[in-house]
Amino acid sequence: MRYQISGKQIDIGEALQTHVKEELGEAVKKYAERPTEAVVVFSKSGHEFVCEATVHLSTGLTAQAKAHQNEIYSAFDACCEKMEKQLRRYKRRLKDHHKDRAEPVEIFGASSYILASDSDSEESNEPETLQPMIVAEMETKIPSLSVGEAVMQMELAGAPVLVFRNEGKQGVNVVYRRDDGNIGWIDPE
């Protein structure tokens, strides 16, 4: 597994890097068979240290965790505990409800746009044009997953919505968290 350990405006020593590699490697190895990459970023927010960790698995799924503590080592340890809990849940769901995926998730390229909001304008009248102004354009990836895997990926990422290509129907689908706590699934015909 490749490690990318860095600090935002703080120095990360060799001892902390070694600690991260050992502890995170042990936690991930216990629950994920083929992790490919781990990205750990340390930063400081006020008097607290913040540790953000992202682990990419060979199946294409991603697990993320974040923790705040007064000391940098305890921030990492709390983050590592959260990561281990997520991976344990992920493995249990795979074992209980899903067949093991023999091949990595197929990923398709797509364009992602950020549109300007109309709330910035002083007047709340009709807009001049129905074409929204594009603020930014980026490349994004759309994974090819089953609905169960998409829900799992959305929960692992802590995202409110996930766009994916449905393996069963080869169409683009959306899963999202509803206000009542349930998961919604949009499957166009």
Properties at a glance:
189 residues, alpha+beta, Double Stranded RNA Binding Domain, 2 domains, 3 helices, 9 strands, ribosomal small subunit binding, HPF/YfiA_ribosome-assoc
Task: Give an account of the 3D structure.
- There is one protein chain.
- The protein is α+β, with helices and mostly antiparallel strands and 189 residues long.
- It has three helices and nine strands.
- Strands 5-6-7-8-9 form a five-stranded mixed beta sheet. A four-stranded mixed beta sheet has the order 1-2-3-4.
- Helix 1 runs parallel beside helix 2.
- The protein is globular.
- Associates exclusively with 100S ribosomes, which are dimers of 70S ribosomes.
- Residues 131-184 form the Sigma 54 modulation/S30EA ribosomal protein C-terminal domain.
Short description:
This protein has 189 residues and is an alpha+beta fold. The protein is built from three helices and nine strands; from the N terminus they run βαβββαββαβββ.
Tell me the fraction of residues in β-strands, as a range: 35-45%
What is the CATH first-level class name of the largest domain? Alpha Beta
CATH 4th-level superfamily of the largest domain: Ribosome hibernation promotion factor-like
Output the strand order for the largest sheet.
5-6-7-8-9
User: Quick one: biggest sheet?
Assistant: 5 strands, mixed
Low-confidence runs: none
Helical content class: 25-40%
CATH architecture classification of the largest domain: 2-Layer Sandwich
Structural class, by secondary structure, is alpha+beta
Task: State the separation between the terminal residues, measured CA to CA.
Answer: 40 Å
Shape from CA axes? globular
Question: How many beta strands in the DSSP annotation?
Answer: 9
- CA gyration radius, whole angstroms: 20 Å
Mean pLDDT: 81
How many helix segments? 3
Task: State the CATH topology of the largest domain.
Answer: Double Stranded RNA Binding Domain
**Into how many domains do the coordinates divide?**
2
Helix-strand pattern: EHEEEHEEHEEE
Family: Belongs to the HPF/YfiA ribosome-associated protein family. Long HPF subfamily.
Pfam families: Ribosom_S30AE_C, Ribosomal_S30AE
GO molecular function: ribosomal small subunit binding
GO biological process, one term: negative regulation of translational elongation
